[in-house]
Specification:
homodimer, alpha/beta, Rossmann fold, six-stranded parallel beta sheet, four-stranded parallel beta sheet, 44% helix, elongated, DNA-binding
Chain lengths: 342, 342
DNA sequence: CTGTTAGCGCTTTCAG
DNA sequence: CTGAAAGCGCTAACAG
């Protein structure tokens, strides 16, 4: 049983100043702009700071300086493997700056995204990174009103509020689909989860390529409105085999779905890639280790995160927010799951 | 190119008050404690708030009220599948409260954790949730000093600063190991990543059970100091087969490692579970869908998150922070990967 | 139920 | 290089 630290415990800037025999503002400077304080005074002050265990109050700082230094990252389903690299990129770029990151994981639900966005707005953010573009007008409107640069990441097929960085999901899907055709698959399905913006773009690309080849069949597009997972992949492959026994390949919403599909094939004795080809999306770490290894589309996630923060930093300098779209490109990684002899 | 919203754009409480013909505090109350304002006035005020697009300034609020309402969640590697359910639990409990959550993903590195902790401290947090117990004294010290309740989650084998909720990882490992023995495996390996606290506890349990059975062999404990992943599982199984060809089962650091081991077995034609048994940890979604499905230890992650927040809320009411350890228990989920006929 | 008065802890001027 | 004064936007505490 530990007692609550009382309010008077809190060490403030003036406490430190008093003990160090200087004014508060000098302590403040010693902490934030060491160059502007004489070395000896600075050292003395920092020593007192250490001794007293002074911790700056960010709320007070934000209020006085009108600068929270906070960058909000809003994403539905923050916690998927796909975000690991993204977050690493973000943090690596933030570390040497004086910004700080706050993540919010919203539901893909519009109402929840609005809630989280308003919450960020309440904190005078220095920037906003938005992942889950839905095209919802209320969200767009709120983003446009944001008094800070906004970077929409992952997909760049949409005109962004300010800036966007990522890849063109439609083109990526076209590449994947073309690959499956080249490998000799003809009855190609698309297995997916909820149709968010990126998924819709991919469907467009998928459809366009198959139609051009005279191979598109809407009955081969299967999805359910739930989040993508291994279980979903398993389930959808099951449905596919029942509804369209002649299907011979699947372009999956992501690698989890692809993995589920792969397992289900194994369970049914469907040989991958001979009887059935599988292509995932994202190129997560495990894709290369699966057996057979899974063909996927590699997305430069680390770089997207890193550069998104970079764009915010640059935009903060100027007084305006440049309209800008950065295409980082994707890469097809052909592996065992589509390595059929042609 | 969008112009920066100017400072004077910002609508403040008094702007709203003025337009509504009341005082600032009344607007403040209408927003936070609607009951204390007459219905008609309240409606009028809320209408003006809406019209003017007023957004409260959380920094000012936190400063004035000495209450940030912020709960910090610090975890190394926030972004693993294992955290999905945890975060859902946290958010579900937070939603109806007036708290807000801020996640920080630290490296498992002590220095980085300290950095992030100090950062939380700078914000007068209402509570702290800590995942990556390392037993590091500097971190413990900082947590002890925190002027708010602290809940350490996932493992409960350690005396916490205030409170802890989770499972006993040592016991869980004992159960898993016993299961492998019961299934007739005798040369049981342990495959792991970095030896964080939880992993060490599991090793203890693993070792204790095998020693009691006269089966422990240190040569079968393989790990590398890198984060656990499918690739690692694959790699470690490869090493295991080389160094100890007679090994016949593995208790893995988590399901990712188990999956990697499973793939590697398939690649080598090692039949699972007949030739080799595999047990994972966490019981992630995909464990049940793999082929063969993967035996694992189910950890009540959603509930841990939900109740951790709950503990903070309750502790905030009282003036003291109860020393408390909550054991939520785990469950062995026996599946195909260890289903050897005995 | 509503308003007045004082700050919260820090930083921004503007002077020395 | 250092300091004094003022105030960021909001809410506690007390009045009415």
């Amino acid at each position: 049983m530990r007692r609550r630290r009382q309010r008077q415990d809190k060490v403030t800037l003036s406490d430190v100043a008093q003990k160090a025999g200087v004014s508060a503002i000098t302590v403040s400077r010693a902490l934030r702009e060491p160059d502007k304080v004489s070395p000896q005074l600075r050292d003395a002050i920092l020593k007192v700071v250490e001794e007293m265990g002074y911790v700056p109050d960010l709320a007070a700082r934000a209020l006085a300086s009108k600068n929270s230094g906070l960058v909000g990252v809003l994403s539905p389903g923050l916690t998927t493997h796909a975000f690991l690299a993204l977050i690493r990129g973000i943090e690596d770029r933030v570390r040497p700056s004086d910004l700080r990151i706050q993540y919010a994981s919203s539901d893909s639900d519009t109402e929840d995204q609005l809630r989280q966005l308003r919450f960020f707005m309440s904190q005078n953010p220095a920037g906003l990174i938005h992942v889950g573009q839905t095209g919802d007008p209320a969200i767009e409107d709120l983003l446009r009103r944001a008094p800070c640069p906004v970077v929409e990441i992952m997909d760049i097929s949409r005109q962004p509020t300010d800036m966007a960085i990522g890849i063109d999901h439609r083109l990526a899907a076209e590449t994947a689909t073309r690959h499956l055709i080249e490998k000799g698959y003809r009855r190609i399905a698309m297995l997916g989860g909820a149709w968010d913006l990126r998924a819709r773009r991919r469907l467009e690309g998928f459809k366009a390529v198959l139609e051009a080849a005279g191979l598109f069949d809407p009955a081969l597009v299967l999805s359910v409105d739930s989040s993508s997972s291994v279980g979903l992949g398993s389930h959808l492959l099951d449905r596919l085999v029942t509804e369209a026994p002649d299907a011979d390949a699947a372009f999956c919403h992501n690698d989890d779905v692809a993995l589920g599909a792969l397992f289900e094939c194994q369970r049914r004795g469907l040989a991958v890639p001979t009887d059935f080809g599988i292509c995932g999306f994202n190129d997560l770490e495990y894709a290369g280790f699966a057996f057979p290894s899974i063909t996927s589309i590699r997305v430069p996630r680390y770089e997207i995160g890193y550069r998104a923060v970079d764009m915010i930093i640059r935009a903060s300098g100027s007084g305006t927010y440049p309209a800008k779209i950065v295409d980082l490109g994707y890469q097809l990684v052909a592996r065992g799951s589509t390595a059929r002899q042609t």
